[in-house]
Amino acid sequence: MGSKATSKVCDDRPWQARLRQQSRKLTGPRRAILELLEREDRPLSNKEIFQALPKGQCDLVTVYRSVQMLERLGIVKRFQLGDGAARFALLESGDHHRHHLVCTRCTRIEEIGECIVRELEQRVAARSKFKAVTHRLEFFGICPACQS
Amino acid sequence: MGSKATSKVCDDRPWQARLRQQSRKLTGPRRAILELLEREDRPLSNKEIFQALPKGQCDLVTVYRSVQMLERLGIVKRFQLGDGAARFALLESGDHHRHHLVCTRCTRIEEIGECIVRELEQRVAARSKFKAVTHRLEFFGICPACQS
DNA sequence: CGCTATTTGCAAATGATTTGCAATTAGCAA
DNA sequence: TTGCTAATTGCAAATCATTTGCAAATAGCG
Q: Which among A27, A62, A108, B96 counts the fewest CB atoms within 10 Å?
């Protein structure tokens, strides 16, 4: 049977190969989660993923575990918006280091091309049509005292 | 009784006035929390604050509530390092918009003077002696669809 | 087709944070 | 100084997000 482009085309996704490379299985739940994220244009929380999936298709715990593993493989990105729940979005390109503009109301996101911060907020606001743009920036590292 | 500079000098802190302005009471627990944060050079989690306080001095729930209120008044800053717990540090100056360099091991922090991000990590690393410096940057705002 | 490491579901544990409510108290007013 | 009242506290219990243990199910290789 030849694969038809009109029905489920499930064998040409970039994540398929990436999963196999790590000897990870492409199971029903995982495929469902990935296809859902593929379809969404905003990061979803575990619960949102769970609820969006056809009832009984996948356990909440499995969502947590899948998403965690996908993050480890660099297939999805975790967003900590600051409200209690983590959100996840597909990382289309293997392109790490991208910043995002998140709507504080609907959590929809847009990718930011550049990576400057100075006059940024205004510039970002102007280009994106978002309003009341703010940003959160933190640096992380190992301090001198801890480098021992 | 005249106030002695050698013992508890508790009436000249910048936060005292700020609390009163908002018709907030300067209670024992609050003073204890503020003086603790004043003394620490790193953001503390609610639990850490609770444990650092003289036993029985203040309930854990009160720490949560106090710290939340102090954040609302702009007296402390909340840090979401990404591990489950929020941390709080005194905001010495009313100076909002400051970025911080956080040690991922001990959570000690340093203020970052500038606010550029480009070649930043390297520069920040070099100046601070921190290693393995990374950063997290997100923008927030109201997207066009939500501005109605 | 069979085997085995990987996954899943379910129940229950954890941990952080919040909420309800009655008792307590800071700070203003008389 | 003494009262009064709104703000605050403590304690118990509720929520919520996330994790863990374990036996049953299964993807994918040989």
A: B96
Question: What CA–CA distance (Å, rounded) separates B98 from B93?
Answer: 10
Cβ distance A138 to B99 under 8 Å?
yes
Those nucleotides of strand C lying less than 7 Å from any protein Cβ are: 6-12, 15-20, 25-28
A3 within a domain of the structure (yes/no): no
Give the predicted TM-score (pTM) of the model. 0.80
Q: Which amino acid is at B50?
A: F
CB-based contact (8 Å) between B113 and chain A?
no
Amino acid at B103: C
| β B131-142/A99-103 pair status | parallel
Query: B22 and B83: one domain?
Result: yes
**Would you write out chain A's pLDDT as a tens digit for each of its 148 residues?**
433 343 444 456 777 777 776 768 889 899 999 999 999 878 899 999 999 999 888 999 999 999 999 999 889 989 887 788 899 998 876 555 566 777 777 777 776 655 555 555 666 667 777 777 777 777 777 777 777 7
Minimum Cα–Cα distance from A146: chain B residue: B105
The length of chain A in residues reads 148
Report the footprint of strand D: residues with C-beta closer than 7 angstroms. Answer: A 20, 25-28, 45-47, 60-61, 64-65, 68, 84-86; B 23-25, 27-30, 57-59, 61-62, 65-66, 69, 84
B41 vs chain A: nearest CA distance in angstroms? 13
